[in-house]
Design a protein that fits this description.
Number of helices of chain A: 20
CATH superfamily of chain B: Pyruvate-ferredoxin oxidoreductase, PFOR, domain III
Helix content of chain B: 40-55%
Number of strands of chain A: 18
Shape of chain B: globular
Structural class of chain B: alpha/beta
Number of helices of chain B: 7
Oligomer: heterodimer
Distance between the termini of chain A: 38 Å
CATH topology of the largest domain in chain A: Rossmann fold
Structural class of chain A: alpha/beta
Largest sheet of chain B: 6 strands, mixed
Strand content of chain B: 15-25%
Number of strands of chain B: 6
Shape of chain A: globular
Distance between the termini of chain B: 26 Å
Helix content of chain A: 25-40%
CATH superfamily of the largest domain in chain A: Thiamin diphosphate (ThDP)-binding fold, Pyr/PP domains
Radius of gyration of chain A: 25 Å
CATH class of the largest domain in chain A: Alpha Beta
CATH architecture of the largest domain in chain A: 3-Layer(aba) Sandwich
CATH topology of chain B: Pyruvate-ferredoxin Oxidoreductase, domain 3
Order of helices and strands of chain B: EHEEEHEHEHHHH
Chain lengths: 527, 193
């Protein structure tokens, strides 16, 4: 039975996956992808079917678990933000080599304009170099419909399929019409055992086959990508959500030729056909100029290719209907004048947050060590960089606090302090801590433990109840695993403990533990 | 017919509840709807906005183009200013006049007021106070929705009230009543202006 529901792009994709017979979603939270897994966690259908939806430690473990589920014939989905693709890249690229058995869909949510991210990387590049087909829906309805298509495609070609969303697609709502519900796949051991063992001799054969298949993907994409004829000097190729921003500026079908792209690799035949109808082409794509570069190449072309590289569209940042208007040479609409009075209002740590008390105490200690450096990490506590704390000196990637502290310490930086959250610690900090122990690095690791994954809205943390034992198991001496409770009344004790561990020559861990006030409020309400 | 609305405020002020109520009413009236929201980092005390588009015809863009927004509903006066380039000349700004000051360089009230009134029609009042006065201190957002109700046009007032009843139903009768009261108080104020 078909129903109409108002859904975020993320939720539409999640529901589409459930209706397509999903058996498990494997993910680590990350904006703007978090709501996909959360929707499945809250779904009665998923509960009834016992669909796996518990958070994984990180994107790599998620990707590998999903690959295992696919091996067993089940439909599995992996969800992450774009930088998560870096974490799972080893597993993802090699899943392209093994291929899939049960449908395997990898969802990467890119964040052009970096609303909540440290870079603007474009996940379509991963699909290209792993030689995996990529789907990019342009609407919530397409997100719902396409994920089923992606599972089917994955099972037909025995390949993972990458689905790419961007922030606006992920976090915008529209009404979605659902289609019929499908059963899950039964357990089915793979018939072709060999391709799962990527010894060089096997991998070489697989490589040949995948290169052949990749050409077929190109042919297939022309069935999904829509070419509309027209007569004008300039044609437009618009990818994903870029199509909406183009069409927003026209009340009826534009008179110039267009190619709407929702599937990659894009068919060369189709692009050549478009080029035969016009003299120049504007390439509209969210993120980096992947297709534009491919069309442009290194040598002059008969058709002029315009887009982000020649300034027709801004080089970076999210697309909007307005930048499309400008690119098409259409006049700006009359509007109220911009206000110079409004000042930026950057995000800040919540009032009453434990990270605040931790940074207050840390700052008081560190001010007595002018050569101290604080290497921090990804999470709410990165906001400790801003006023009034100015407490950290770095934020690079998940887990980099501990390992950068090691390198800096060995190069003479002292005190070398790492600040990492509980969830980030179990995501990518543990292996770094083992390095530190093995090298007997002179670093102080502060784990600011708020008992949750705070920045993305309070998801369960894999570290919950385990941090001290993990540190102990890794080999940090018991007497140098210290616990403090970040509250103003404890400042004196906190400062003493932090100072003692800074002065200890070797690896020490200061666990600074108090529940996130957002999740604490929620828990209180539930009681 | 279409109506493009920008909702603005500071993370945690309840703009998404306004969007949910309008969204419910829009679907009930078989309108097309797109609603872009802000999730993630900026929710923590930063500026937040939602682009809400209602139309009797299909909608392409999730984002409202510059100069096409007809109403800004803002939980905070300075936040309304941020979206002026999106507002049609002569469009409506319905804003709470109570500032949310969590930054050191917050501008003077007179400067904010001057920019609010420069090109737009403005209804500005302390919706926090009105919410407190009607015994529903957490419903400042519904006071503002009430004040904006007659400018939304594409939906009538009863649709929106039904929306409130539906969206808050799971929180109990008292919460529904409080929000309806807040909505009506806002509606009254706008009618007098």
């Amino acid at each position: 039975m078909s129903e109409k529901t108002l859904l975020l792009g993320d939720e539409a994709l999640a529901l589409g996956a459930l209706h397509a017979g999903l058996s498990g979603v494997y993910a680590y939270p990350g904006t703007p992808s978090t709501e996909i897994t959360e929707y499945i966690q809250g779904s009665p259908l998923a509960k009834g079917r016992n669909v796996h939806c518990q958070w994984s430690c990180n994107e790599k473990t998620a990707m590998e678990a999903a690959l295992g589920a696919s091996y067993a014939g089940k439909r599995a989905m992996v969800c992450m933000k774009h930088v998560g693709m870096n974490v799972c890249a080893d597993a993802f690229v090699n899943s392209g080599m093994t291929g899939a058995s049960g449908g395997l869909v990898v969802v990467a949510c890119d964040d052009p304009s970096m609303h909540s991210s440290q870079n603007e990387q474009d996940s379509r590049f991963y699909a290209e170099f792993a030689m995996v087909p990529c789907f990019e829906p342009s609407s919530q309805q397409e997100a719902y419909d396409m994920v089923r298509l992606a599972f089917d495609y994955s099972e037909t070609y025995h390949t993972p399929v990458l689905m790419r969303l961007t922030t606006r697609m992920a976090h915008s709502r529209a009404v979605v019409k659902t289609s019929e519900m499908r059963e899950e796949n039964p357990l089915r051991y793979p018939e072709d055992q060999k391709r799962w063992v990527l010894l060089p001799a096997v991998a070489r054969l697989r490589n040949e086959q995948i290169i052949k298949q990749y050409a077929e993907y190109e042919e297939d994409s022309s069935k999904g990508n829509i070419l509309s004829e027209g007569k004008a000097k300039t044609g437009v190729i618009a990818c994903g959500i870029g199509w909406n921003y183009l069409m927003e500026n026209f009340s009826s079908k534009p008179d110039f030729p267009t190619l709407k792209v929702t599937r990659y690799p894009v068919s060369k035949k189709q692009v050549r056909l478009l080029a035969s109808m016009c003299e120049s082409i504007i390439v509209v794509e969210e993120g980096q100029p992947l297709l534009e570069k491919a069309l442009k190449g290194y040598l002059p072309t008969e058709t002029e290719i315009k887009g982000r590289l020649d300034g027709t569209l801004p080089r970076t940042g999210e697309l909007t209907p307005d930048v499309l208007r400008k690119a098409l040479g259409m006049p700006e609409k009359e509007a109220c004048a911009k206000s110079d009075v409004a000042v930026p209002r950057p995000p800040a740590l919540c009032m009453g947050c434990g990270h605040r008390d931790f940074y207050t105490a840390l700052n008081r200690v560190v001010k007595n060590y002018p050569t101290a450096r604080v290497f921090s990490d990804i999470g709410c506590y990165t906001l400790g960089y801003l006023a009034p704390f100015h407490a950290i000196n770095s934020c690079v990637d998940m887990g980099a606090s501990i390992t950068m502290a090691i390198g800096a310490s060995e190069s003479g930086v002292h005190p070398s302090i790492a600040v990492i959250g509980d969830s980030t610690f179990t995501h990518s900090g543990m292996t770094g801590l083992l390095d530190a122990v093995n090298m007997n690095a002179n670093i102080t690791v502060c784990i600011s433990d708020n008992l949750t994954t705070g920045m993305t809205g309070g998801q369960d943390s894999a570290a919950f109840g385990r941090i001290e034992n993990i540190c102990l198991g890794i080999g940090v001496p018991k007497e140098h695993i210290r616990l403090i409770v970040p509250l103003p009344k404890n400042y004196e004790e906190m400062e003493r403990v932090i100072k003692e561990e800074i002065d200890y020559r070797g690896v020490s861990v200061v666990v600074c533990r108090r529940e996130c006030i957002q999740t604490a409020k929620r828990h209180l309400k539930k009681q | 017919m279409k109506k493009d609305i920008i909702l603005s405020g500071v993370g945690g002020q309840g703009i998404l509840s306004i969007a949910t109520v309008i969204g419910w009413a829009a679907i009930k009236n078989s309108l097309y709807l797109k609603q872009a929201e802000v999730h993630g980092m900026s929710q923590r005390g930063g500026d937040v906005q939602s682009n809400l588009r209602l139309s009797s015809d299909p909608i392409f863009s999730d984002l409202i183009p510059k100069g096409e927004c007809e109403i800004i509903i803002s939980m905070e006066p300075m936040e309304a200013l941020r979206y002026l380039p999106y507002l049609k000349k002569g469009g409506w700004i319905i804003t709470n006049s109570a500032p949310f000051v969590n930054i050191p360089s917050y501008p003077e009230t007179s400067a904010i007021d001057a920019d609010l009134h420069r090109d737009a029609n403005v209804i500005s009042f302390d919706s926090d106070q009105i919410a407190k006065d009607c015994g529903a201190p957490r419903s400042s957002n519904m006071v503002l929705l009430g004040a904006a109700a007659k400018y939304i046009e594409i939906l009538d007032v009863d649709n929106l009230k039904d929306g409130i009843r539906n969206v808050f139903a799971r929180k109990g009768d008292k919460i529904v009543e409080d929000n309806i009261k807040a909505f009506e108080a806002g509606y009254e104020i706008a009618s007098k202006k």
